[in-house]
């Protein structure tokens, strides 16, 4: 089980399950107390290579997911799943060497989805870049608001919808790097980019996977350290002030 996402009312959690029936992944929900687990979708025949990364819409009627429509693994789609009609709608599909491997993020008004697009090297061995893109939740044209050379990923909308927070050199997809991994804010159209953390100077300390608090006053992050300067060997949770500042650990013992 992985990839949990709270329903807006806090009553249920959507998550990914991989078992003998759906070894490549399916989406389930469960009550907040662990009761009443239920299969939502195994991809409705459209995701033969698996379905992952659920994120609940602000009105609680849909999930955004990543669907893998090609059994050979060469495609990834941002899609929505309607909980009432059990309908899966693919919004945008990327082809290798581009790849999708993290949860989309709903805008607070439910109109748009922000997500990361990764780019692999020609040998399919390592990630050469990542960018941030948006697509209308009702369907439409994808808008790429950063470029691959920025290595930005894991977007999350501010509660008022005015900003998107992103990190550079994400922990999940770039396991080793000598580059700094910091947080940035930018407008949904890609303008007004602002760096809000600076304490990561190289791969020995990385700030990544940002998520806004519901009131918009803090951003929760993963802070990773590496004894050899590149390979992550310890990760802790911390807060960052979105106005600017460095991470403050929840506790040094977590």
Can you characterise this structure?
The chain is mostly beta strands and 254 residues long. The protein is built from no helices and 21 strands. The protein has strands at 2-6, 12-17, 26-31, 38-41, 51-56, 62-67, 75-82, 87-95, 98-99, 105-106, 112-120, 127-136, 143-144, 152-157, 164-168, 183-186, 194-195, 205-212, 219-225, 234-240, 248-249. The strands form five sheets. Strands 9, 10, 11, 12 and 13 form a five-stranded antiparallel β-sheet that branches. A four-stranded antiparallel β-sheet has the order 1-2-3-4, with no helix packed on it. Strands 5-6-7-8 form a four-stranded antiparallel β-sheet, with no helix packed on it. A hairpin with a 5-residue loop joins strand 1 (2-6) and strand 2. The chain is globular and about 45 Å long. The mean pLDDT is 92.
User: What is the average per-residue confidence, as pLDDT, rounded to a whole number?
Assistant: 92
Cα(first) to Cα(last) distance is 21 Å
Residue ranges: pLDDT <50 for 5 or more in a row?
A: none
Helix-and-strand structural type: mainly beta
Helix content, binned percent: under 10%
Largest sheet: 5 strands, antiparallel
Bulk shape? globular
Total number of beta strands: 21
- Tell me the β content: over 45%
Order of helices and strands: EEEEEEEEEEEEEEEEEEEEE
Tell me the radius of gyration.
18 Å
């Amino acid at each position: 089980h992985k990839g949990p996402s709270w329903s807006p009312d806090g009553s249920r959690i959507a998550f990914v399950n991989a078992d003998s029936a759906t070894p490549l992944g399916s989406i389930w929900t469960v009550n907040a107390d662990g009761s009443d687990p239920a299969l939502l979708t195994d991809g409705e025949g459209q995701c033969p290579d698996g379905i992952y990364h659920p994120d609940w819409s602000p009105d609680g009627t849909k999930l955004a997911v990543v669907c893998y429509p090609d059994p050979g693994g060469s495609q990834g789609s941002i899609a929505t799943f309607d909980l009432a009609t059990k309908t899966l709608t693919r919004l945008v599909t990327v082809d290798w060497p581009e790849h999708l491997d993290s949860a989309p993020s709903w805008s607070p008004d439910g109109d748009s989805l922000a997500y990361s697009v990764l780019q692999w090297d020609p040998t399919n061995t390592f990630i050469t870049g990542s960018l941030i893109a948006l697509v209308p939740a009702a369907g439409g044209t994808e808008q790429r608001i950063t470029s691959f050379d920025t290595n930005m990923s894991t977007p999350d909308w501010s509660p008022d919808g005015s900003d998107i927070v992103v990190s550079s050199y994400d922990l999940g997809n770039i396991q080793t790097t000598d580059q700094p991994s910091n947080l940035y804010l930018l407008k949904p159209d890609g303008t007004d980019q602002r760096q809000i953390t600076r304490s990561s100077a190289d791969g020995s300390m990385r700030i990544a996977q940002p998520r806004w608090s519901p009131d918009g006053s803090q951003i929760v992050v993963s802070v990773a350290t590496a004894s050899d300067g590149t390979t992550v060997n310890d990760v802790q949770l911390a807060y960052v002030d979105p106005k600017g500042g460095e991470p403050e650990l929840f506790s040094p013992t977590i």
